[in-house]
Known about the structure:
This protein is 58% helix and 12% strand. The longest helix is centred in the middle third of the chain and has 38 residues, at 157-194. It has 391 residues and is α+β, with helices and mostly antiparallel strands. The strands form two sheets. A seven-stranded mixed beta sheet has the order 4-5-3-6-7-8-9, with helices on both faces. A two-stranded antiparallel sheet has the order 1-2. The two termini are 35 Å apart. It is built from eleven helices and nine strands. The chain folds into two domains: 4-194, no CATH class; 204-374, Alpha-Beta Plaits (2-Layer Sandwich), CATH 3.30.70.270.
Amino acid sequence: MARMKFGRGPLGASSNAIDRVATDQRSAEEMMRWAAVAMFALGSATLLGTLPLPDSNTTDHPAIRIIAILLALGAVLAWALRPGRRWVSHFGVIYGVLLVSALMAVTRPIEATPFFYLWPMVFSAYFCSRREVAADVALMWVTLGVALFVFSDDPMKLTEFMGVGVSVTLTTLLVKVLAEHVTAVIRQLVRAADTDYLTGLLNRRAFDAAFHEQCDRARRSGLPLAIAMFDLDHFKQINDRHGHAAGDRVLCDFAALLEHELRGGDTLARVGGEEFAVVLFGVGLDDGVAFAERIGRELRASERADGPALSASAGVAALSEREATPETLLLVADRALYAAKAAGRRRVAVWREGATRVEAHMSPGPALQPAEALADDAGAALTSSVGAGSA
């Protein structure tokens, strides 16, 4: 599940998830359109193909030919439909049901004509909402009754009415149930692919997509954006001394702490073993540093008496003309995080004016020496460290 919070309420979908939903909706509308084209075109071809076959009663052929032409017209209209006009596609279901009922009214004898009801009704069950399906089923029953009891002289009309109505309704309901089940399974798979199994946060794959969307959003709106990278200090020692179960609890607790501090529109992910990233929308560099400091204080205050001592290091960077791409911004934030750890951990380092600078402690510890820039030459290893905090 994407961990983007809106206020302090329940977790909502990330901007990337919303964008993906919109993309999936457009794909469904496109599939709906072409399915409607195929349904009407094949229906027209089937009717026209039956006319040359031997038939003892050809009085219904002119009416069948007209219905075939109307079906072909439906195919043309569905083909001309632009994606995003979903209501027009659903109108195609109504149009199809009405044409099948008209076919029932004019065909002599009826024979296999009721099978054509399955075409629009299966279409409705797969693509339409429950309310729309219910309306389509009701329309099918009403128009079937009119076709049989008003226009047909078949002595078995009552039996045919019940048999066709019940069979088509059950088939429609079955397809609807199966379609909803498949949709739910796909959503679960997508959620699992985007979610870190331990903490329930976004994983690195989903974070990359969400981060790109957040950067695009910041550029479009002209608002600032900062990213804070966190790394739990000496996490391997926690696993070695207290066991992996204790390490897992620490990761989950830290994830919960970060979630609690999120604002509306922020994005949170676990991007490595003990590494987390928070994208702060509408936040500049200084406020990003303040956020990281607050996390450090909260982490220290949340330590359990019988648990391991906890601290974290943080690297903060902000979107700018120089760091204008998600890849560059993530790179310099990671370099700032490395500088914080190299300076003795429990610190916040920032990428400012082309260099890393250690600016603050994240938790109580030795006094921080005056800040100084750490040279960071386009990917070269950091060669100096600041501060004398204990590891």
